[in-house]
Write a structure and sequence with these properties.
Helix 10 (205-214) packs antiparallel against helix 11. It is built from 16 helices and 13 strands. It starts with 8 loop residues before the first strand and ends with a strand. The chain has helices at residues 17-21, 23-33, 50-58, 73-78, 88-98, 104-128, 133-149, 159-168, 175-196, 205-214, 220-231, 236-251, 253-261, 266-276, 308-311, 346-363; strands at residues 9-10, 37-39, 44-47, 63-64, 130-132, 283-287, 291-293, 296-298, 303-306, 364-369, 374-375, 384-386, 388-393. By secondary structure, it is α+β, with helices and mostly antiparallel strands. The protein has a single domain, classed as Cytochrome P450 (Cytochrome p450), CATH 1.10.630.10. It is globular. It is 50% helix and 12% strand. The strands form 4 sheets. It has a 6-stranded mixed sheet with strand order 1-2-3-9-6-4, with helices on both faces. A 3-stranded antiparallel sheet has the order 5-13-10. The protein binds protoporphyrin IX containing FE. Protoporphyrin IX containing FE binds next to helix 11, helix 12 and helix 16.
């Protein structure tokens, strides 16, 4: 493709290990180039600012998901048939199959159980005192999500690795995505087996899907894909939000004191954490027809990259975006996406993260950072791999 002279070019690889560890420096450099920058390495138009990201997410007829939202053709082919990779009525039909599981009413029925689990998890962590915050952050999603999906006990030990691999595979074809491909395919094979053997837990979301296939409402071949649709994005993302919250409150004790003094700030604190350290870095869209964005012509079949993590730190949208402040109105953050593909599980993610914060606020005087955290190397997920902390009991 000949280089365009009307679009600034960014030559650095934002998916290199170094860039994954230092993601916000690259986002700032991209935003400084303008509303659209050509990622030379990945042959895609990056949208680093808030306004263009939001505009693209809200125009699903021009910026489609059906050609995939990954950055490599293999994943865009393998992922066909998922909710994430579909458009129009096809998308609504898939999303509608399990929507009733994640409505505010359905979630309300789970609240007491989830809060009880969060309290027990935090009590054990406080007793241990010195902990890895990632382990603490993983405990609640791992005890809630597999049951909700209906995953049999056997095989659960692989879920986190599989889910992380599924995200990695959505990046460009690089070392990360190639290395994790076998794990991604392993999850698909396992899901097919679970559907074939009907080993999903009774009364679960997966069970709903198998029943829908029995009644001819869902093609049987799609059951496994749709189970993965809800499993893959539901673990690492929430683990990211909870672990980032732990680190941010450890390093901003004044914000922790505000939260302890007024726990009604918890829902907004969740928004601010997702704004500040957006768990998903970016997804792409394919351009369905010749169009224009921010005055720049975009040809049909080109690809744009919606960089949620950068939009959420855009100074054109946010006052002092580099400041973590749970009192700001962060409700318009784009970390859960927006529009028709906006996160289907955000109610659950908010409930889990809030339950953990509530349990911590009640039992912990302060959170201390006791070492240097490490970022996980993943093309899509922005989360800690290791987060040494001490929980000082109240
Ligand atoms: C903090 C936690 C989470 C974050 C930050 C997050 C983020 C996102 C984002 C950015 C999208 C939009 C994709 C797009 O624009 O193409 C999305 C979609 C989705 N998320 Fe989440 N997510 C989280 C938790 C969850 C959970 C817990 C579940 C499942 C129970 C879930 C299920 C889904 C599904 C099924 C989609 C696809 C929706 C569609 O294409 O219509 N997510 N999520």
């Amino acid at each position: 493709m000949p280089a365009r002279t009307d679009v600034p070019v960014y030559r650095a690889d934002i998916y290199s290990a170094a860039a994954i560890r230092d993601t916000h420096t690259h986002y700032a450099a991209l935003r400084a180039l303008g509303p659209i920058a050509w990622l030379n390495k990945h042959k895609v138009y990056a949208l680093p600012r808030y306004a263009e990201c939001k505009a693209v997410l809200l125009d699903e007829e021009t910026f489609i998901s059906g050609e995939g939202v990954a950055l490599n053709p293999l994943a865009n082919r393998v992922g066909r048939g998922t909710t994430l990779f579909s458009d129009g009525e096809d998308h609504s039909r898939r999303r509608g199959q399990v929507a009733h599981r994640l409505t505010p009413r359905a979630l309300r029925a789970m609240t007491a159980t989830v809060e009880g689990q969060a309290a027990a998890i935090v009590e054990a962590a406080v007793a241990a005192r010195n902990i890895d915050g990632v382990g603490l952050a993983a405990a609640l999603p791992m005890s809630v999500v597999p049951d909700l999906i209906g995953w049999p006990e056997e095989g659960r030990e692989h879920l986190l690795r599989w889910a992380g691999a599924a995200f990695d595979s959505l990046g460009p074809l690089n070392r990360q995505s190639v290395r994790t491909l076998p794990s991604s395919l392993g999850m698909m094979r396992y899901a097919r087996r679970v559907v074939r053997d009907r080993s999903v837990l009774d009364g679960s979301m997966g069970h709903d899907l198998v029943c829908a296939a029995d009644e001819g409402r869902v093609p049987r071949a799609e059951c496994a894909t749709m189970m993965i649709d809800y499993l893959a994005p539901s673990l690492d993302t929430t683990i990211s939000a909870i672990s980032s919250a732990l680190y941010l409150f450890a390093t901003h004790p004044e914000q922790w004191n505000l939260l302890k003094a007024d726990p009604s700030l918890i829902p907004n604190a969740v928004n601010e954490v997702v704004r500040y350290e957006s768990p998903i870095r970016a997804f792409s869209r394919s351009v369905a027809r010749d169009t224009e964005l921010a005055g720049t012509p975009l040809p049909k079949s080109s690809r744009v990259l919606v960089v949620y993590g950068s939009a959420n730190r855009d100074p054109l949208e946010w006052d002092e975006p580099e400041t973590f402040d749970i009192r700001r109105d962060a409700s318009r953050q784009l970390g859960f996406g927006q529009g028709t593909h906006g996160c289907a599980g955000q109610g659950l993610a908010r409930m889990e993260t809030s339950a953990m914060l509530r349990a911590l606020v009640n039992r912990v005087e302060r959170i201390e950072s006791t070492g240097t955290p490490e970022w996980a190397l993943n093309n899509l997920i922005h989360r800690y791999e290791y987060l040494p902390l001490a929980l000082i009991p109240a």
